[in-house]
Amino acid sequence: MNQPFKITICDDSRLAQRQLSQVIKSWDAEVSLVDSGEKAIQSIKDGNAQLLFLDLNMPGMDGYQVLEHIRAHDLPTIVIVVSGDIQKKALQRVTELGALAFIAKPVNHDKLLHIIDKFGLFEELIPTEQADTSNDTPDSSITLTQEERFQETANIAMGKAADRLAILLDTFINLSIPKVNLISNSDLYMMIKGDSENSFTSTISQGFAAEGIFGESILIVDKTGLPHISQLLGFSSEIDRDLEIDILTDLAGLLSSSFLKAFFQQIGINHINQGTPSFLDYKGQLDHLVESEGGVNSLAIEVTYSIPSHEIYCDLLLIFTLDSIKPMNQRSELFSWTP
């Protein structure tokens, strides 16, 4: 009797693990789940990863480092990268490091079958009489937290926004792991003020509303990198105040709009109303946050975009009202099961 094909899914997000597991549940394979690059390496060494589905953005050893280790030590595995980071330079980089293929999150069943067929794995993995899995229901034995659902939704949105920025600047954008927290107004004040006390940062705010979900996107930009951004855009590195405002406003609009569009599309919302971007005056506009009562006041999602080689760093904060959490929760439960 033939041994089952061994597959390992490596992703620090349980939601991403769950979604991909659902997509391949009818395959003739034994599937292992790991949540770090270090565990992925061990799974290969243990013989449990003839095929490795690998995320890129993870704490500790990330996907790029896993690929480098696999190549350096000639480990026996086939790697398909599964990531929310869809930048062309990310695809180029993982291909150079030896990945067989790249597929964007959330994984589409038909696209994955095409990849498997293209590289000659179809007959080994797919049963001859495969049942139609398009109407399969998720494994309800796995309970996902609100934070996990929002974090993975934000992870995919972050990658799509980075792709827009990467195309504009023609360079690779480094991405953080999204942070999701319930915060008080005083927490929000410190998050903004802590990054923005000196003259080397600018903060741009833009309100948004979408089908009962309300909030504000806040972009904090380290202005040290503005001359580099200007040059990447084809302008002079000598920046006057008008050009600085134009660059910052366009950057905030691009990242905020791209992120929000990708975030809301995943939870079934296709129309968003956004306000006009405005620069925050810390001394005047943030005082009400300090003076307000304590307790949780909003949900915050924080992501960081950076290009260290050009000294470009910016933090994007998505602040949602407490009343928005319930409809977001209800909608996010549908996210994983889009085949």
How would you describe the shape?
Answer: globular
Q: How much strand?
A: 15-25%
- For the record, the CATH class of the largest domain is Alpha Beta
Instruction: Quote the distance from N terminus to C terminus.
Output: 32 Å
| Whole-number mean pLDDT | 85
Rg over CA atoms, rounded to whole Å, is 22 Å
- Number of strand elements: 13
Residues in helix, %: 40-55%
Largest sheet: 8 strands, antiparallel
Relevant CATH superfamily of the largest domain: CheC-like
Architecture of the largest domain in CATH?
Answer: 3-Layer(aba) Sandwich
Overall description:
By secondary structure, the protein is α/β, with parallel strands linked by helices. It folds into two domains: 121 residues, Response regulator (Rossmann fold); 192 residues, CheC-like (Chemotaxis protein chec, 3-Layer(aba) Sandwich). Helices cover 42% and strands 23% of the residues. The chain has 13 helices and 13 strands. Helix 2 runs parallel beside helix 3. The longest helix is centred in the last third of the chain and has 26 residues.
